[in-house]
Structures are given as C-alpha cells and as structure tokens.
Design goal:
Length: 103
Amino acid sequence: MLFRNIIYLGLALLMLCGGCGLHEGVVLKESKSTLWFTGNTQDALVYIDDLAPISLNNSSGSNPVHYKISPGRHSIVVKKSGKEVVNRNVLLGSGITKEIQIP
C-alpha cells in the first residue's frame, strides 16, 4: 500500500512539473494553406467565405493563380460575368495546396 502511494505521488509530481516550459523558447511558424486557381482565370472573381471578392485577373488569363489562406473549412465561389461557375466547400490542412479548376 505504501509503495503504491509513493508511485501515485511520484506520478502526480511528474505531471505537475513535467509540463512546465514545454513550449518555452519555441517559435511556431504560422501555418498557411494555398488555393491554386487554374483554368481560365481572366475576369474571375473569387469569394472565400463571406469576405470581399478577390480578382484573379492576370496578363494572359490562363496562368495559375496562388492564394494563401488559413487552414480549415472554407466556402469557395467563383463568378465570371456575374455568373457562378464554381461553388465548393473545401477542408484545408496546414501546408496543403488545393487546386480549384475554373472553366
């Protein structure tokens, strides 16, 4: 019985003191994911969640466009000339790149 109590006391002390300073001095890099818009991106407006639209215009209209975003669940809507051409819900992990094909 005494031996068991000593073991429990030792485990309790280890749990109390073992976590101190676990992340002290460690700098965690901010995690980002990437949306990769491919296809005909000319005149495309992208709506991510309920944020202001993002224009994908570029010089040729067909080059891939990359957009950094926080990991998590997002609603992606792409409109061209006022018409919705893409409507997707995506779940992005940290450091993941997800391709969104625009017709």
